[in-house]
Amino acid sequence: MAATGSSAPQLSPQTQGRITKCVILVDDEKAYIDLLEQLLSSHLSCPVHSFTHAADALRALPDLEVGLIVTDYNMPDIDGLQLLAEIRQRLPAVPAVMITAHQEHFTEQQLAKVPNLKVVIRKPFKWITLAEHISQYWNGSTPPFPMTRNDR
């Protein structure tokens, strides 16, 4: 089961008793993140936890085994680069994907603070594009999504 907002993540029956890496989604647009969570949860072989507030995602990190972070760039309290820099201090090996509707141009100095950022995806995008990037940069031995083109 996934967490949205400030509720604590819950383990589904199939993940209880074993450590399962998850995807964390952070975006302040609730309807968007809910839809993305539903699509990814239906197609990935790992739990997906979504948060509409970066602070809630940060608070949940100690209770989760994270395989990858997906964050929006433009959020009200903290931008995606700041969030990834904070996560990197806590989980330096966890890769990240940034999604944004804006034509951001990041400086080398900004990117140097977040070497865990692997790719920036411009909105709108197809969910399968995100799923493929999640599998490509997954922090674990078994990617959560098959890398085939037949699912399109």
Characterization of this structure:
Mean pLDDT is 86; it is low at 1-17 and 148-152. The chain has helices spanning 30-43, 54-60, 80-90, 108-112, 127-137, and strands spanning 22-26, 48-51, 66-72, 96-100, 117-122. Strands 2-1-3-4-5 form a five-stranded parallel beta sheet, with helices on both faces. It is built from five helices and five strands, in the order E-H-E-H-E-H-E-H-E-H. The protein has a single domain, classed as Rossmann fold (3-Layer(aba) Sandwich), CATH 3.40.50. The protein is of the alpha/beta class.
Query: Beta-sheet strand percentage?
Result: 15-25%
Examine the secondary-structure arrangement and name the CATH architecture: 3-Layer(aba) Sandwich
What is the terminal separation in angstroms? 25 Å
Shape: globular
Instruction: Tell me roughly what share of residues is in helical segments.
Output: 25-40%
Taking all residues together, what is the mean pLDDT? Answer: 86
CATH superfamily: Response regulator
Rg, Cα atoms, Å: 14 Å
Number of domains: 1
How large is the count of helical segments? 5
Strand order of the largest sheet: 2-1-3-4-5
Largest sheet features: 5 strands, parallel
Which regions are unreliable across 5 or more consecutive residues at pLDDT < 50?
1-17, 148-152
What's this, in brief?
With 152 residues, the chain is α/β, with parallel strands linked by helices. The protein has five helices and five strands, in the order E-H-E-H-E-H-E-H-E-H. Strand 1, helix 1 and strand 2 form a beta-alpha-beta unit.
